[in-house]
Amino acid sequence: MMPLSRHRRQRGFTLLEVLVALVIVGTALGASLRAVGSLTQNSDGLRSAMMATWSAENHLVRLRLAKTFPQTGKRTVDCPQGDLKLICEEEVVATPNPRIRQVRVNVYDAQYPARRIVRLVLLSFND
C-alpha cells in the first residue's frame, strides 16, 4: 500500500493559465471587431461609388437625349441618388476636331466636396 502524500495534486487551472487564455480570447475578439469594421467601411464605399456612377450616367444620358451640342465650360448641379446627396460637376472641353467635344462628369459627396467619388467621360459629336 502506498503512503498518502500530504500534498495532493489539485486538478484545475492556475490563475496564470486563466489569464493567458483570457488574453488570447481578447486578442481574437479585437481582431474580429476590426475586421467587421473594415468590411462595413468597404461596403459603404462601394455603395457610394455605385450610386455616384448611376448619377453620372444619368447626367450623361440627359445630355445625349437633349440632342444639342454642348457648350464648353463648367457647371455644377445637384444629382442626388437614393439617400446620398451628390454633386455633379460637368466640364465640357473642346477637342482639336471642332465637331467633337469631350464631356467630363465628376461626382462628389455633398458632405465631403473635396473628395471625388467617380469620373465619367463622354465624347459628344455635332451631327
- What oligomerization state is this entry in? single chain
Helix content: 40-55%
Distance N terminus to C terminus? Answer: 111 Å
Order of helices and strands: HEEEE
Give a count of the beta strands, DSSP E runs of length 2 or more. 4
Describe the structure.
- With 127 residues, the chain is an alpha+beta fold.
- 41% of the residues lie in helices and 31% in strands.
- It has one helix at 15-66, and strands spanning 73-78, 86-94, 100-109, 112-125.
- The protein has a four-stranded antiparallel beta sheet with strand order 1-2-3-4, covered by helices on one side.
- Strand 1 (73-78) and strand 2 (86-94) form a beta hairpin.
- It is rod-shaped.
- The relative contact order is 0.13.
- The mean pLDDT is 88.
- It comes from Janthinobacterium rivuli.
- It is found in: Cell inner membrane.
- Keywords: Cell inner membrane, Cell membrane, Membrane, Methylation, Transmembrane, Transmembrane helix.
- Type II secretion is composed of four main components: the outer membrane complex, the inner membrane complex, the cytoplasmic secretion ATPase and the periplasm-spanning pseudopilus.
- InterPro entries: N_methyl_site, Pilin-like, T2SS_GspI_C, T2SS_protein-GspI.
